[in-house]
Amino acid sequence: MTASSTRRTSAVRSRLAAVGAIAVAGTLLLTGCGDQTKDKDKGSGSASANNAPLADKLPQDIRSKGTIKVGSDIAYAPVEFKDSSGKAVGLDPDLAAAMGKQLGVTFEFDNGTFDGLLTGLRSGRFDIAMSAMTDNKNRQQGVDPDTGKKVGEGVDFVDYLTAGVSIYTRKGETQGINGWSDLCGKKIAVERSTVSEDLAKQEAKKCPSGKKLTIEPFDDDQQSQTRLRSGGVDAASSDFPVAAYAAKTSGGGKDFELVGDQVEAAPYGIAVAKEDTQLRDALQAAMNAVIKSGEYKKILEKWGAQDGAVTESVVNGGK
Question: With 60 as the cut, is the pLDDT of residue 158 above it?
């Protein structure tokens, strides 16, 4: 038995012993503890292990269960969000279902706040985190971007898309905002523990005296949008696919508009515990099979994310 499988077996026993505490339906969390809503949502279309071409690449305990528990902030359309029936839908759930066909398992999405996902992953509440999460060195190494200090074990990422960060305002009310350097003296809404929040903090340090950039962090992107829509802030920031989707759909396209160019383009990655190398490699193989099959392209086009397509999934490609 490998060290990886030993750790996984121990983690499984631990989870079974504390099953009442599992809140993975909302666990793609970056902080680990935030309020969690139990909302299990099994992906569709996964093949049986007998017919799946890559099933033998998975750790045995996951093959036996037939499911991969996914922590995710399911309020980030079009990457992941809930439809009118409460089912998790979007780019990530569709890609997960396609991977499930390759691996012979079902991906179970559990809802939670983004800032608790990595802590939840490290504690064994779920197997992976898949939530429009940017792969970068800080997350790989478990380093706080504000202090530079180690805050926990890092994670590995299986990369699958490239996306930057955008700013948007109320439609027709840009107030001269064309980029991050125009935000001094303004208020911006962001989702907590995201790259958008990191960029806002960096910009705030550059503002001259008397022109403070006020940052209002929220648990999810929907709350940021609500704050902007009500006029409580001057702008909001999200990953480009999310900001573009909000501008296109909110209020029938009448609520928001994008301002300036997207910045900080970087890979989205599926987060996996450092010790789970077998699971990580199985996910990478499955994603590459989905890319090669052409299903990847169709899924990205369905959700308007084709501009971020990659030709190959790599591990820890973020900088």
Answer: yes
pLDDT at 15: 41
User: 73-129, pLDDT tens digit by residue?
Assistant: 999 999 999 999 999 999 999 999 999 999 999 999 999 999 999 999 988 999 999
- Exposure letters 187-198 (e unless 16+ CB within 10 A, then b): bbbbbbbbbbbb
pLDDT band of residue 152 (cuts 50, 70, 90) is confident
**Residues counted in the chain:** 319
| Whether residue 46 sits in one domain with residue 29 | yes
> What is the 8-class DSSP label of residue 48?
P
What integer best gives the mean pLDDT of the chain? 88
Count other C-beta atoms under 10 Å from residue 241's C-beta.
Answer: 27
Residues 287 and 250 in one domain: no
315: in domain: no
85's CB contacts (< 8 A; 6+ apart) are none
172 shares a domain with 90: no
Same-domain check for residues 140 and 180: no
Give the range of the structural domain holding residue 183, as residue numbers without chain letter.
164-265
> Which parts of the chain are beta strand (E)?
41-42, 67-72, 81-82, 88-89, 106-111, 128-129, 155-170, 187-191, 214-218, 235-239, 256-273
Rounded to the nearest 5 percent, the helix, strand and coil shares of the chain are 35, 25, 40
Rounded to a whole number, what is the largest CA-CA distance in the chain?
A: 66
